[in-house]
Amino acid sequence: MKNKTATYIKSNEINSDIIDKVLFSVDAKGVATVTLNNPDKHNAFDDIIIAQLTEIFNEIANSDNIRIMVLASTGKSFSAGADLGWMKRMASYSYEDNLKDANALANMLKALNFLPQPTIAKIQGAAFGGAVGLSSCCDIVIAANKASFCLSEVKLGLIPATISPYVVNAIGLKASRRYFITAERFFADSAKQLGLVDEVVELTELNSEVDKMISTLLANGPEAVRHAKKLALDVAYQDIDEALIKDTSERIAQLRVSEEGQEGLGSFFEKRSPGWQSAMNIHKDINKVANKESSKGSNND
């Protein structure tokens, strides 16, 4: 599938330069990449980009062929958060218009946080304001060692309201209380200690580390991965009572008798690769052949 963007905007409503600020592609392995593509403004987002992201996330959620989503960006910064032009417009909005705007951002974050597929955020530079929210909504965050983070809202007399549930969940209440009120900038190593970032690598190793994580995820049962993510979200902070015990027991029983569960258990005892790994290896072989043919063609030129 070629790069594509959300299609909710009619072509006569806005020019293609705006639409191209969010790129969306899916490869043969079922890995979707959503890329913020506004490097001149440090990938800051506005109401239009938020609407695009929401539609793309919903499209991914409804796709059985997409197994993983990577959230990335172009340029030096991951995202500067809210676009200054958008913020300037919001300053003159009524309460009702501001509420509508805030709800749109909140719904985008919710769509990202609850995607059924595993999500990876690839952070190569500054992630400020709402971008910390995007990171907090992803299952796995891999950052370059010089990446930096800041919850900068109070510097503008605002608060990180719509992103707060996800940030508090990622870094905890104590750290949130500090960084919400200080707007201090902190770097990747500190972000890892706080739980916002999972892996810190050199910038030159960022792509390969993300690819390694993708391979790790693809080696697992596709349906099991989705169910495992939902399990973590559903049981978090719940009382361990009879209802929860019943629910979790039913979940594992259902997967044990499922087609994927039977294939996984069977392949383990038969000491062979499960079907989903075999399919992945076929894609690798096809790519190797294609690369060899491409190389031959180049040598003949």
Descriptive keywords:
301 residues; alpha/beta; 2-enoyl-CoA Hydratase, Chain A, domain 1; 2 domains; 3-stranded mixed beta sheet; 13 helices
Strand content: 5-15%
- Helices and strands, in order, run as HEEHEHHEEHEEHHEHEHHHHH
Average pLDDT over all residues: 88
User: What is the name of the CATH superfamily of the largest domain?
Assistant: 2-enoyl-CoA Hydratase, Chain A, domain 1
Q: How do you describe this structure in short?
A:
This protein is of the alpha/beta class and 301 residues long.
Structure description:
This protein has 301 residues and is an alpha/beta fold. The protein has two domains: 16-217, 2-enoyl-CoA Hydratase, Chain A, domain 1 (Alpha-Beta Complex), CATH 3.90.226; 219-300, no CATH class. It is built from 13 helices and nine strands. It has helices at residues 16-19, 47-61, 84-91, 95-113, 130-137, 164-171, 173-182, 188-194, 206-218, 222-235, 242-256, 259-269, 275-300, and strands at residues 22-26, 31-36, 68-73, 119-123, 126-128, 140-144, 148-150, 185-187, 199-201. The strands form two sheets. The protein has a six-stranded mixed beta sheet, sandwiched between helices. A three-stranded mixed beta sheet has the order 5-7-8. Helix 4 runs parallel beside helix 5 and helix 5 packs across helix 6. Mean pLDDT is 88; it is low at 1-18.
